[in-house]
User: What shape does this take?
Amino acid sequence: MTELEKLQQATESVRERLSLSPKIALVLGSGMSEVLQELEGVQRLAWEQIPHFPRATVMGHAGEWVWGRIEQEPVLISRGRVHYYEGYSMAQIAFPIRLMKLLGIERLILTNAAGGINTDYRVGDFVLIRDHINTIPDNPLRGENISELGSRFPNLLDAYSARWRAQTKAVAQELGLELREGVYIATPGPIYETPAEIEAYRRWGADLVGMSTVPEVIAARHCGLEVLAISLVTNLAAGLGSDTLTHEEVLETTKRRERDLARLLQAVVRGL
Ligand code: HPA
Assistant: This one.
């Protein structure tokens, strides 16, 4: 079965159960599910129930799709995501994004946890990604092009919609939330970086580092979705802060900032 046939099967299966026609989707990083509190008329679909969908493996990633309305606007929310470091193929990482496209999604908001490289950043800051650098040694478009989804050689100019970023900054200001902007560098993980790598990435122009998002953005841009990506600085990157850097620290910051992230996401959806 081709990748497109798998996607079509999954689309049919989800359509039978999805009672709304959302045009906007959110992918939430681990522990960033507070926005679900804002959702009315909640319905859920476990990833296992979707044909060909990648299965969840990592702690903290619930692995379900949830939909409902935020301020009247129908939204589809992926609670958790799959990562390269878990061993998934790029096709598997792209699958949920492409499925969203086939379901009629036009705009995608991605959230993630990231280490701060820019020394102006503080733990707990929200940062809009304005561009990326990819060091993951693969991407979802390698191999035969799925021409029904997009072109062979897509560009990544304005991959992180300037229009939508401007709108989001205005919305954040209204809420009194500080929102920075920066360049995200994606690493394969699962190890955190060395201090020397972080210094190198800083010189390349990276402000933030994380282990997700970029493959999803590439898949999303290929099939023409408009993208907004928001990072939460959960820790200072290796060598810049304390001499500890743990997953617990990442989760702790996420927990502390989850409510404000939910407020921001709700306002972004409302502002559409
Ligand atoms: N490095 C890579 N990924 C991350 C980090 C980090 O410091 N923090 C959260 N995700």
Strands lie at 24-28, 40-46, 64-70, 73-79, 107-116, 126-134, 179-186, 208-210, 226-236. DSSP finds six helices and nine strands in the chain. The pocket of hypoxanthine is lined by residues 113-115, 187, 192-193, 209-211, 234-235, 237, 250 (CB under 6 Å).
